Amino acid sequence: MAAGEKIKAKIKKNLPVRGPQAPTIKELMQWYCLNTNTHGCRRIVVSRGRLRRLLWILFTLTAVALIFWQCALLISSFYTVSVSIKVHFQKLDFPAVTICNINPYRYSAVRDLLADLEKETRGTLKTLYGFSEITSRKRREAESWSSAREGTGSKFLNLIPLLAFDKGETSKARDFRTGRKRKVSGRIIHKASDVMHVHESKEVVGFQLCSNDTSSCAVYTFSSGVNAIREWYKLHYMNIMAQVSPEKKINMSYSAEELLVTCFFDGESCDARNFTRFHHPMYGNCYTFNNGQNETILSTSMGGSEYGLQVILYINEEEYNPFLVSSTGAKVIVHRQDEYPFIEDVGTEIETAMATSIGMHLTESFKLSEPYSKCTEDWSDVLITNIYNATYSLQICLHSCFQAKMVEKCGCAQFSQPLPRGANYCNYQQHPNWMYCYYELHQDFVREELGCQALCKEACSFKEWTLTTSLAQWPSEVSEKWLLSVLTWDQGQIKKKLNKTDLAKLLIFYKDLNQRSIVESPANSIEMLLSNIGGQLGLWMSCSVVCVIEIVEVFLVDSLSIVARHQWRKAKEWWARRQAPPWPEAPPSPQGRDNLGLDIDDDLPTFTSALCLPPAPAAQVPGTPPPRYNTLRLERDFPSQLADTEVPAES
Amino acid sequence: MKGDKREEPEPGPEPAAPPPPTEEEEALLEFHHSYRELFQFFCNNTTIHGAIRLVCSQHNRMKTAFWAVLWLCTFGMMYWQFGLLFGEYFSYPVSLNINLNSEKLVFPAVTVCTLNPYRYTEIKEELEELDRITEQTLFDLYKYNSSNTLVAHARGRRDLRESLPHPLQRLPVPAPPHAASRVRRSGSSLRDNNPQVNRKDWKIGFQLCNQNKSDCFYQTYSSGVDAVREWYRFHYINILSRRQDTSPSLEEDALGKFIFACRFNQASCNEANYSHFHHPMYGNCYTFNDKNSSNLWMSSISGVNNGLSLTLRTEQNDFIPLLSTVTGARVMVHGQDEPAFMDDGGFNLRPGMETSISMSKEAVARLGGDYGDCTKNGSDVPVENLYGTKYTQQVCIHSCFQVNMIRECGCAYIFYPPPRGVEFCDYRKHNSWGYCYYKLQDAFSSDRLGCFTKCRKPCSVTTYKLSAGYSRWPSVTSQDWVFKMLSRQNNYTIKNKRDGVAKLNIFFKELNYKTNSESPSVTTVTLLSNLGSQWSLWFGSSVLSVVEVAELIFDLLAITFLMLLRRFQSQYWSPGRGRRGAQEVASTPASSLPSRFCPHPASPSSSPPGPATSLALSAPPPAYATLGPRLAPSGSTEASSSAHTPGEP
């Protein structure tokens, strides 16, 4: 206790806490202005003449405003980036190359599964377009199939009938052509029953999808029957394939030995073992070259077509599904080893009987993440679960998001994307109306009403291969004969003689070994910002950080303490007044009250000394308190009156 | 910070301030009484470093000299640095920014053309004569016997050939330009003994002459195919310009006849999505998603399923045989409000193929004004925009050529839009326009017309990089039903199968797009910061210090003026001043006030400070005592200050 007191006393003695030097704010200001190093302030006090002072106040305020404005500009432009482009010449890693046949499964293998669908499609074609003319071999097959499956009814058409609408008839039908879906109306004619001759091009074809309780339906129309049939077929195809096990699907598709006839890389021979299988729901078995398995990534030592990947692909056009795919060829995509190949979206097609040369040029981009831009390094700050086994990309995020919404809204997963955990693919045995749900959802997705585009951010770093494609006839007329026979002999397992149109040659190579990197870096650093702010402070007012501290001290700490002291004194006064006289002279004039306060002012010095406030501000006699605090009004009135009286006298 | 200062004087009334309030009222503007006083005041109160030492240390000459040297050195250093900084700023350097954005993109406009301007059957009568002569020429020059019976027919009437000007002829390689007639003669004589001539020594061309045949030259080609095509094209332009006004737009129903199927984003297109125009070389062109379409297509996801997919007719049945040597269709991707220059940025589609074109967008934004030579909207380019679309460099160059063509040749080139009231070139009306055109073309490509310098780059350019992949379409297994269906629905003649159709997919490869933009690398803010840094480093002074110096100079002038005035008054005016002046002279010494300057217009002349001011010199001016009185007659102060300020600087 005693020790505590002692320390307290010592601190009080050695480090006295005094109030501000000036007793009033006005004096404080004057003191500050005379002593500060900031330019302009001193002149306010020192200058003679009211106009001069006013001008100096204006100058100083302008300088302060300019400083604030310029510093705000500096700070707001702090998060900008500068970009540097570097070109390296080095040995480049070869990217992963994924090659798919456009046709997913050998038609002979899947025909059993799709027989009913094919029959009905042909039936629809016949009824809608009167198309029955097929080659003799196919007709025989078709007849055999149709005879075998005579008993089964047209279950696909019953589920989702293909309809033809007369466009010219009503204005409502015109709406269908725009592709916008709308509620079904009674005007829809069911063409499945009677043969309709679609000679007029005024007619559109489409199908109708309904929700669970068939209360709301949507009609999808197509300006061309080709598209309508293909879409319709695809819907049913997805239903059927969704029920097939993955192993069976892999077996039905092409094997690596079948697809790849020859392979050369960097001047050395390679074969099917260098390719990794990757099963794509819509493209069947795809094969990825150099996907980084065994932790080895191949690289090329030279640019040019000789040192890239050269493959000859076997595209068996006979085995193509006639309704699912209408073009022939292969698809190829160049991607990073840990990236998912979105072959259906961005693949490059390769033509049969042609040599396609694809020259690559590598560009790497690195962006700065928050707060410079909204991009993400990995999945950590994206609220969507990754259903692909690959690194982050915007495309993966969007597809994952859509699939998640699909499972959430429709109860099942869409066929062309991977399965999320605990969900299974849609088919109309279990989810009879998933298609309506899917189309609705897709419309919402495209119109950005699902919020996927807002949730997914772009990736911060990506590699991009710019491709240049050129084509040449292959094989040439003179080399065709020997080349085809040699290849037929090589490809032992194909029992037929190879045709020119069954083959496609593909060359993928680096055009040069220059790698372009676009790297963002912060344009401003903290040092630059500070020096710029310092420059501004110095330019306008010759101010510094010490000045700023001074300003804070004077204008915040000292002024506040003066005001607080003043208020405290007032409160004290008021309290004392309330205590002392009970209520005899309650209604006296304001002057009386002021006088009363003046009397009580005697207490004040003791109080201030108790507060360790400066005992004698401005060296005044403690006994006589300055009367200015309480008789403000009186005294202020007085000089102003004086001034008033004087001004007219002067003028 | 200054705000509370202004409020402060309220609670603090007239305090017991250190300077005694001898003067109850401060004047609006006070001046020092002498230069010395003024300098003393300045030296005491200035904030310019070094200057105090220089001006105010007058006791020591050595010191003054030293400080003068130092001051000059730093002054020089500072201005040298200032010069460097300003030099950098006024060279307007730019820094390149590359932004990688990823967002929903507006699908660009896609123009597809038939590559056949007119159905041959419809234009046959106009072209009949030209075709016959062309075939005759081909026979004469190359012994090419067209299966057409017209040849034999025309041979009988060889004189018809003379009806067309500028005949195609064979020329020896160093074609003597002056002896045109001899060349023609020798050409005709050599035509018969054709096989003996070494092919290398001959060129094919046609002659073009000016109005009065005084100057002629040969437009020659090394390949006969080029020559025939160019010659045919030249005549075709003339025929076309005659036909132009009457030609109706053909193939109204594009969705049925040329475009079999059209889908965007898995929804069918309709008439509102495309507009039609006719190009004299590329035929009927359909522009999808241009600025006239009701709502623009947006791509919110990349990939082939979310783009434009077209099935096109590429049948060649009624093509003009000598004009169109290519088959297929021509496609071009361009911005919404840019015209489609099929010549410049087109892409040919092969028939019987599915062409997938993947796009990626790239934008370039340049800084205009002082930072670079580009134009924001073309309004400041001295070339009239004949296209009525957004400014691009191509638009400008074509317009520039057309304007020159009209000025030099008096008629408009048919491939560019004409200004109002100008007709297209036709040698029946303007018989030497070919001569004029080829001369102009030569001048244009060597930039003697100044088109390339006049046409500045636009400040913002959006380009679409295209890359294509091909696959055969339709496949063998599906072609039966596809063709059948097309023939039933679209009146497609099934005869030539695969060559009659083509499929086109255009889609965004990625929604990331790169923006190359420029930004000034030295902005005004950084320039000011750098100036401030330099200034602080060398001088420690600020803008307010400059104002102080300005005030000093103003004071000096004012004092000089007042002194002169006083002297003038005391010499000439005081005897005749009368009662009032005498009163004031009498009163001023008594009131020992410093000299004051009243803002009233009459006061400088009427109220002289009087000679008594010298008395007050000894006492330091106590004027900077208080701020308080300033606010008391606030209304009058403001009024007087505002009355005075115009004269102040």
Automatic annotation (TrEMBL), chain A:
Region annotation (Disordered) ranges: 579-599, 613-651
GO cellular component, one term: apical plasma membrane
Membrane topology, from the record: Multi-pass membrane protein
Segments passing through the bilayer: 54-79
NCBIfam families in the record: ENaC
Function: This is one of the three pore-forming subunits of the heterotrimeric epithelial sodium channel (ENaC), a critical regulator of sodium balance and fluid homeostasis. ENaC operates in epithelial tissues, where it mediates the electrodiffusion of sodium ions from extracellular fluid through the apical membrane of cells, with water following osmotically. It plays a key role in maintaining sodium homeostasis through electrogenic sodium reabsorption in the kidneys. Additionally, ENaC is essential for airway surface liquid homeostasis, which is crucial for proper mucus clearance.
Official protein name in the record: Epithelial sodium channel subunit gamma
Species for this entry: Balaenoptera musculus (Blue whale)
Lineage: Eukaryota, Metazoa, Chordata, Craniata, Vertebrata
Automatic annotation (TrEMBL), chain B:
GO biological process: cellular response to acidic pH; cellular response to aldosterone; intracellular sodium ion homeostasis; multicellular organismal-level water homeostasis; sodium ion import across plasma membrane
Topology class, membrane: Multi-pass membrane protein
Keywords from the named record: Cell membrane, Cell projection, Cilium, Cytoplasm, Cytoplasmic vesicle, Disulfide bond, Flagellum, Ion channel, Ion transport, Membrane, Sodium, Sodium channel, Sodium transport, Transmembrane, Transmembrane helix, Transport
Gene Ontology cellular-component annotations: acrosomal vesicle; apical plasma membrane; ciliary membrane; cytosol; external side of plasma membrane; extracellular exosome; motile cilium; sodium channel complex
Ranges of Polar residues composition bias in the record: 585-594, 634-649
Region (Disordered): 1-23, 174-194, 574-649
One of the Pfam families matching this protein, by short name: ASC
Known catalytic reactions: Na(+)(in) = Na(+)(out)
Compartments reported by the entry: Apical cell membrane; Cell projection, Cilium, Flagellum; Cytoplasmic granule; Cytoplasmic vesicle, Secretory vesicle, Acrosome
Chain segments annotated as transmembrane: 65-86
Superkingdom, taxonomy of origin: Eukaryota
GO MF annotations in UniProt: ligand-gated sodium channel activity; WW domain binding
InterPro entries for the chain: ENaC (IPR001873), ENaC_chordates (IPR004724), ENaC_CS (IPR020903)
Biased composition (Pro residues): 12-21
Main localization, broad class: membrane
NCBIfam families in the record: ENaC
Family per record: Belongs to the amiloride-sensitive sodium channel (TC 1.A.6) family. SCNN1A subfamily.
Primary role: This is one of the three pore-forming subunits of the heterotrimeric epithelial sodium channel (ENaC), a critical regulator of sodium balance and fluid homeostasis. ENaC operates in epithelial tissues, where it mediates the electrodiffusion of sodium ions from extracellular fluid through the apical membrane of cells, with water following osmotically. It plays a key role in maintaining sodium homeostasis through electrogenic sodium reabsorption in the kidneys. Additionally, ENaC is essential for airway surface liquid homeostasis, which is crucial for proper mucus clearance.
Listed PANTHER family: AMILORIDE-SENSITIVE SODIUM CHANNEL SUBUNIT ALPHA, AMILORIDE-SENSITIVE SODIUM CHANNEL-RELATED
Protein name: Epithelial sodium channel subunit alpha
Species in which this protein is naturally found: Balaenoptera musculus (Blue whale)
Gene: SCNN1A
